[in-house]
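Handoff note, outgoing to incoming analyst
You'll be picking up this chain. Sequence as last confirmed:
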Amino acid sequence: MSNLRWKVIAILATLVVFAALGVYPIVASRYGIHSPGWLMEKQLKLGLDLKGGVHLVLRVQTDDALRLETDTETERLREELQTRTIPVTNVTAVSSTQFRVEGVPPAQDAAFRQAATEVQANFDRSSGTNGTYTFTMKPNIQVNLRDEAVVQARQTIERRVNDLGVTEPSIAQQGSSGGDQILVQLPGVTDVERAKEIIRSTGLLELKIVEQGPSPTKEGLMVNGQVPANTEILPGASGAPGEAASTVYYLVRRVAAVTGRDLRNARPSLDQNNQPAVSFTLNTEGGRKFGKVTSENIGRQLAIVLDGRVQSAPRIDGRISTDGQIFGTFTQEEVQNLSLILRSGALPATLTYLQERTIGPSLGADSIKSGVTASVVGLLLVTMFMLIYYKLSGVNAVVALVFNLVILLGLMAYVGAVMTLPGIAGFVLTMGIGVDSNVLIFERIKEEIDAQRGVRAAINAGFSRVFWTLVDTHISALISAAFLFQFGTGPIRGFAVTLFFGLVSNLFTSLFVSKTLYEIALSHRQQVATLSI
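Most recent structure output, in case you need it:
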């Protein structure tokens, strides 16, 4: 009796704990019952197909990452040639993976080859006529850069989505053409355009010294119709906050003094006119570079460039080390979004939208209603079958099945799993697995009774001989669920998670809870001649 008492206490404690985690928060949320915050945080979360939200498929333009690497190496070689005073006619990028150097003097050929040694780590060099050299990115470097661009884009999107406060987003790589697509699912998001803008914005911050400007036209900054070497013309906006802004142009140095990679933090603030602005702090290396550039260019303008557009161009009045501010014609919402984008880091390549679907909460409500209806109908049919076919022993199976479902909900809520429509299918399948386990046990007990064994001995033998059969089948199914989760995407993973926890809880209820219920039923009877089964 003492052993049975501890079994009952263990079962009731398990039931109470998992009911508090999985069932009570749902009931409390449904009927507006006040509950502790930590408990409501464990409430079972709903996926995109149940809660509604946004489903996006984006393609990473990996050629941008190759072009950035080519441009960087082009500028690096140009600066190296200037440092070594090697005159060349032109250094220009001809494609995303290739750049060309023209007019290398024959007398300086050896010196040029020496200067280009570092570039040749990633580029193959081929020579042409009249001192022309073509540098082509190595195939393995191209593959690596494309793969890294997709991974970095996914990680950046994850940081931005997390800062948006989206609950349980799903972000994964997919696509057959090199896996350059990213699937983004945002349950519960209603402001679709804001989410899309934050996800897609490149967020590339650059601080560049202004050579000339602002000018109302690009032509006013050119020399003989050409942009001066080592510079570029970028658009910007003029006009005070609240006034209509007109486009002006700045001639800035091509190479940025500091980029967003040197950022430590970015946050909303106010400028000297109490207008919305973004304050930023640089890391140690960024602060060193920023301090050097500002100390060497006191009295000149510094262009703060975001995604290729000059946001502001303040005058440098003294050395600046780690702190700066971006101001312009921003609204409060724009500075919030810009701070979020800068904190999450710049995207390594631009994104294009391949697919967009907005799932309304009404569709999710219909899915939940259908899923609950299917679960209730399935439970009722199973209950009827077990009671009719196995008589009072069917009550044992039904109670164990209810325990199973309560534990399943509690486990999913505790680990923060997300319930999806395929997950509801896994929920219904769990009921079938639970009944199947009890059927195996009951049939074995009936065989033992038919063999003229006593009721208690038949029950013990039935559970004992089915034990390893159930363990084997459940382990096999768990392995299948693990593979579904590892190699599947959103919906399949939702099914796999529910199936996994359903199998774990069913093994406990069918072997431990069900047998304990038999022991409770027989504990007050000295002689047991028959069993209702």
